[in-house]
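Saturday, quiet lab. Running sequence design on the structure tokens for the scaffold JK sent over.
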């Protein structure tokens, strides 16, 4: 490890946070566009602005606050990342994924990652939640993968298996908890695009054809890096809008995305809390239907 290596920078960020946070996180939670309210529910919160953490990039997008909130939720020590940076802001994939490496360095073994997404599956409605079963990394297939760069064995393997990025057990628990809480939660495949322009109708037809249920502009780089660090990953999308088709030629706007995400954030919080409770007591929420 040299002073210019990624591993070194991760250590610097983690060391700053160790000095600021009263407890080290067991779970990292990333909140997407409009989903910030869950961070307000953290108990005994310590708020650290990204600008005060070495090497953290600060988001330029409205709806993305740029704070790390440490504390507990359901008795589990968590670090909540309120706001993230994206490829379309001009940041590198290493910058985008740097907070995930830092959370892992602090001790987080589980990553719960959320986003706002457009619904491609014709049965999805705005306000639904979708638990990610798999993803399609379109920028990755075209040469933009966060693991491109110098090989640093300290951080993970060179050739990462990605055949099952999302943890089966956490996914089943999230679905069961959502169903019991009366939240409309589906399961599906998330396709990531670079953005920031939304998709054309032809692109929407293409994404449906290749098997995507929802489309968004985030999450996948962080999931790749979390798997590189061998964290267990749960991904949840809020379907903020349905994609345009010839029969349903709707427009999409960032304002609409934010307002639907904010309205869906209570259901999302119920699921995240249930999953956290289940980490302390796995029998509390198995898919067979124990009380959450
Ligand atoms: N497309 C891409 N990203 C999105 C969308 C969408 O329709 N909605 C929210 N994020």
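Result came back. Writing it out in full:
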């Amino acid at each position: 490890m040299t002073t210019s290596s990624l591993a070194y920078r991760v250590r610097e960020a983690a060391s700053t946070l160790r000095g600021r946070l009263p407890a080290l996180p067991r779970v990292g939670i990333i909140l997407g566009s409009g989903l910030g309210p869950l961070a307000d529910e953290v108990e005994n919160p310590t708020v650290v602005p990204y600008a005060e953490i070495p090497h953290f990039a600060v988001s330029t997008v409205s709806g993305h606050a740029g704070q790390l909130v440490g504390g507990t939720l359901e008795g589990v020590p968590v670090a909540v990342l309120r706001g993230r940076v994206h490829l379309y802001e001009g940041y590198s994939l290493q910058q985008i994924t740097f907070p995930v490496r830092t959370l892992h360095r602090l001790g987080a073994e589980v990553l719960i990652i959320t986003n706002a997404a457009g619904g491609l599956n014709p049965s999805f409605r705005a306000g639904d939640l979708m638990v990610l079963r798999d993803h399609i990394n379109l920028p990755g297939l075209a040469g933009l993968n966060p693991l491109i760069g110098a090989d640093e064995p300290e951080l993970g393997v060179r050739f990462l298996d990605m055949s099952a990025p999302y943890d089966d057990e956490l996914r089943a628990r999230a679905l069961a908890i959502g169903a019991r809480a009366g939240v409309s939660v589906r399961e599906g495949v998330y396709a990531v695009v670079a953005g920031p322009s939304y998709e054309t109708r032809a692109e929407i037809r293409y994404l449906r054809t290749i098997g995507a249920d929802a489309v968004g502009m985030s999450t996948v780089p962080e999931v790749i890096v979390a798997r590189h660090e061998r964290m267990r990953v749960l991904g949840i999308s809020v379907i903020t809008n349905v994609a345009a088709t010839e029969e349903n030629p709707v427009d999409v706007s960032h304002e609409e995305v934010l307002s639907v995400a904010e309205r869906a954030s209570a259901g999302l919080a119920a699921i995240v809390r249930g999953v956290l409770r289940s980490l302390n007591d796995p029998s509390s929420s198995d898919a067979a239907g124990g009380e959450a």
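Notes for JK: Residues 61 and 89 are 8 Å apart (CA to CA). Residues 116-118, 198-199, 215-217, 240-241, 243, 252, 257 surround hypoxanthine (CB under 6 Å). Ask whether to fix the surface positions before the next round.
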